[in-house]
Every structure is written in C-alpha cells, then in structure tokens.
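Limitations

Structures in this collection are predictions, not experimental determinations, and the ligand pose is part of the prediction. Treat each record accordingly. The example that follows, with iron/sulfur cluster as the small molecule, is included so readers can see exactly what is and is not provided: the inputs are given verbatim, and the output is the predicted complex.
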Amino acid sequence: MAEKLLMKGNEAVAIAAIRCGCDGYFGYPITPQSEVMETLMEEKPWETTGMVVLQAESEVASINMLYGGASCGKKVMTSSSSPGISLMCEGFSYMAGAELPCLVVNVVRGGPGLGSIQASQADYFQATKGGGHGDYQLIVLAPNSVQEMYDFVDLGFELAFKYRNPALILTDGVIGQMMEKVELRPEKKRWTDEEVIKLHGDWATTGKTKDRPQHAITSLALESAVLERFNLRLIEKYKKLNEQEVRFEKTNCDDADYIIIAYGAASRVCEKAVELARSEGIKVGLLRPITLYPFPTKEIQNMAKQLKAILTVEMSAGQMVQDVRLAINGALPVEFFGRLGGIIPTPEEVVAALKKMVK
Amino acid sequence: MDVKDIIKPENKVYGKCPVLTERVLHYCPGCSHGTIHKLLAEVIQEMGIQDKTIAISPVGCAVFAYNYIDIDWQQAPHGRAAALATGAKRICPDKYVFTYQGDGDLSAIGTAETIHACNRGENIVIILVNNAIYGMTGGQMSPLTLEGQVTSTTPYGRDIALNGYPLKITNLIAQLDGTCYVTRQSVQNAAAVRKTKKAIRKAFENSAQKKGTSFIEVVSSCNSGWKLSPVDANKWMEDNMFPFYELGDLKDK
Ligand SMILES: Cc1ncc(C[n+]2csc(CCOP(=O)(O)OP(=O)(O)O)c2C)c(N)n1
Ligand code: SF4
Ligand SMILES: [Mg+2]
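Predicted complex:
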C-alpha cells in the first residue's frame, strides 16, 4: 500500500513539488496559500533533492524568476492568490510568447481589488481568457480534492513541458485549506540537462557549446509576417491541446435529464446536491471539467442531445457559464447559480436553483 | 611592400573577437552599446566561458543583444532582467549570469528587481548602460536624465519641481551589503575602453569566487536621443554627465 498522509491542499502542493523533481520554487506570501512556501521552507528540499526555494520581493519578481529558471530548461513553479496572480500576468504573456514551461498555482480568493481572503472562483476569466496581453492561452487544471492538488503538480509540469507553455492550477481557498488523505506517488528525480534535451529537445540556455548554435529565448518578433507565423503556430499548439488534453469527470450522467456543471470546490457541493435531488426523483448528473483550458466543449455538446437543461454553479458572478453557453449555442436552456464574495453555496441552495430550472 | 606581405599571422595585432557574431549592429553610429558588447565578448572569450555564460537582455535599444554576442541569451520583460538572472543563477549556480540593461529598464520600471537582486547578493554581474535617456522609444526622460536636459518628454529641460532629481542609482546600489563591486566607467576613448574591460573581467571573476553582486554602470552616449553628432555627444557627455555621474569605483570588496 502506498503511503497516505493527512494534509492541507496547500501542503500537498509543496510535498508534490519536492517529490516530482521540481527544480525551483519562487513565491511571495499571500493568504490563503502561504502554506505552500512555508511548507517548502520547513522541508528544506535544497538539502535533499537540491530544489531551490526562494522568497521573492513581489509576484512580479517571482514570475520573472520562473522565466529565468524555465529558460534554463528547469522545472520551476510559484503559487499565489488572486491579487498576486494579477501581477504575474505580464510574465504569463512573455513566457507563453517565449514558449516556456512553468507551473503556477492560483488559490483564488474573492475580488475585485483586495477583496476577501475567502474562497472564490472569480478568476476563471483571467485564467482561461488571458489576463496578460496578446493571443495566448494557459493550460488550466482545476483540482477538487487534496489528492488532485498533489497529483496536478506533476501533471501540470508534464503538460507544461510537453507543450512548452505555462500551466496553471486554478484552485480556491477551500481546496487549499481543507485537509484530506493523500496518497504519495513514487518520487521522481530532478532532470539533468541531458535528460531535458532527450525528453523535450535542445532549446534551453545551458551555455553555448561549439557543437550547437546559440539559444536565445525571446518573445520578440518585430516583423509582422514572422509574428503572424508564430501566432499561427501557437494556435496549432492550442488546437492540439483541445484535441488531446481535455479532462473531465461525470457522475450520475448516464440516465440524466439535467446536468450541473461545476468545477473545484463548487463541484464538491454539487456532488451532494445531485444526491439530494436524486432522492427527490430529479434525474440529474454532474459534469466536472478538470481542464478549464482546454474546456470540455465537445463533451458538453455530446451530452446536450440527451438533456433538457443545464445548471452551471460557480463561486462567481457567472464566468464559466459563458463557455457552457458557447458550447450549447442556444440548443438548451443554460441556467446559472452562484454565490459571491467568498461564500460557498450550500447543496440545498443548489437543489432549489435546480428545481426552479426543472419546473 | 605589398599588402600581402603585411597580412601574416605573425603580424596580427588585433582581430574581431570570435564570440561576436557576423551580424551588422543595428545601433546608431557613435552609440556606446556596440563598444560595450565588444568588451563583453572579449572578456568571455579570454576567460573561456562561452559555454558557461547565460546573459539576460533588456527591453531597450539592446533588446537584440543576442544577435551580436554568440552566447545563450534570455530576453527579459522590461525591467525584469535581475529577476530572470536570479532564477537562472540560483538553479544553475555553476553558470556565469549577467544582465545588460539601459537606465530606463534598470532604474525606472526595474528598480525593485534590481535593488533586491543586489541586496540578496546574487552572484551575478549587472551592466547598466546609462545614456540618461530612453533611446529605444525615441528619447524620453529617464530617471537618470540630468537636470535641465532636453528630451522629448522634457522639451523645456528636466525640471526638478516637476520631475524630481536625477537618480544616482549606482551610489544607492553601492550601499547594499549584497554587492561586492560597484563601479562607474565609460567607453568614449581608448583609455576608458580599457578600464571598462578590466572592470568587466573583475566582475566575472567575482562571480566565480561567489563574492556577491558586481554592478558596472557605463556612462554612455545616445547621440540620436540627444540629437548630437557622435563627436559632440561625447563632448556633451564629458562636460555634463561626468561631473554628475563621477567615474571610478564606488565599492570594491
Ligand atoms: C512594460 C513596458 N513599458 C514600456 C515599454 C516601452 N519601452 C521600450 S524600451 C523603453 C525604455 C528604454 O530605455 P533604456 O532602458 O534607457 O534603454 P536604451 O534604449 O536607452 O538603451 C520603454 C519605455 C515596454 N516595452 N514595456
Ligand atoms: S537611439 Fe541611442 S541608445 Fe539607441 S542605438 Fe541609437 S544612439 Fe544607441
Ligand atoms: Mg537609456
């Protein structure tokens, strides 16, 4: 039996980072995710795996430290919460433009502005529609358990390197702070430069040797034709992501007349709501997007054929619901229920919203 | 004597450094950037560290530095070079890491990243090319623009009441315990060029000895931004920049 430990979501991120061969973490404290760096500092991985952990002077600095480490072909990561992520958006754009892998964790809190320190899902737009400038996408993973917080660190790095693109774990204060049992996965060693070249190609700034041309990591392309060609290549990459990397989970969907679509903490509430509604005879299921980008558009379209209506539940004013409506394109009613400001909806509230829709 | 008699290996006294590429510089004639590039390439060649060097280029006229010095480069967002250098150096401590930045890049938008990298004593080299102006964007005021200096955003000269004082960023950096070597040099004549090269060499050697951050300001000319001929620009620099930005070592630990 693999080892199981009880830990917080944020702690799971830190432990997973060390165990999956991360080379460096750079971060700046912000509630509700400070445990990530605190746990790393306590674990002192520089004495065991050699992983670097550094407290930066700001989130602007953290993300640019990632830029420097990622350019060397290293597995680098940071974590923050909403206001800090806003500061990193410049870096996301540059790193997507320079085709650099990295992992970012956003333990979302209520906004806008300084907002609250309570859990929220109001950063969906920022995560999936940009945040930074230019035509780029982040790979966005949405865990709904502490186990997934742990597992998605490794998965995030895998996808980030496979596609040479920043990956983001979009989670929230509930998942970050709650404690659950976690099964630890086998440890992975940090990659050597040679292993990175073998696995992911020879592009990093490891020092120019006589037998290869210079490596220059840049997002600059002053000539319009050159930039357009690059933009088209990015579109190809995102298309491939949409074809190959969509992940979701379905519960009670086989005979469903209705489904709820929810991710992260909201999906945990909706699991219970589905149970309650089923006990009252409503044939409802739950679709939980695990990748928010790429979004399970096709799956929603496939499911729509058997459905009468869809309820989207979010801890926001209604952000993901726009992607659901785009997928459905008017074919079905798509309703929304959300709580804001850091309030977690109750299963009963969700059932009430469901009943209103079913009527 | 025929030219062919002169062109012989034993007569060679000077040549193009092999760490420089064949590309033609895009800099304006008379610009200091090209000379400083050459010095960096020569030091890297002489120390034999081409395969151990990672350089960070700025947003500014030197954004394309990677086109000219044949080493591995990372092109940073505006002002963030010192943070990139930190990330690279921390994870690859056996590499020589240097940033190459303009005065706007380093002392306006990048002040925080610069000060904190220096204060942590990152084992990196920072090259500040101070031409007291935003060259790349067409000659606007930088924090290092002199009092009374005319730029496109100070058309009547820099007014202290409006724009504050020129920032002696290098003096400020010298106060930080993380720095081991802080110097202000120039490249307007052969003697100055030789001194700057020596400073660069020392800075790289400090990196190898893990002494902390080495910071070299090169007081430079931007004849296009200053709207002067290359010769007049050098004269203006000597008359106006040097009295305010005094040349020499500020710290050598
Ligand atoms: C975030 C951001 N703001 C503004 C700019 C525009 N910009 C490009 S270069 C530059 C100033 C460069 O001046 P300096 O650092 O002194 O370099 P120089 O060209 O003089 O060598 C500015 C403001 C930018 N590229 N990015
Ligand atoms: S604008 Fe100024 S800094 Fe830029 S290349 Fe021309 S002279 Fe050099
Ligand atoms: Mg300048």
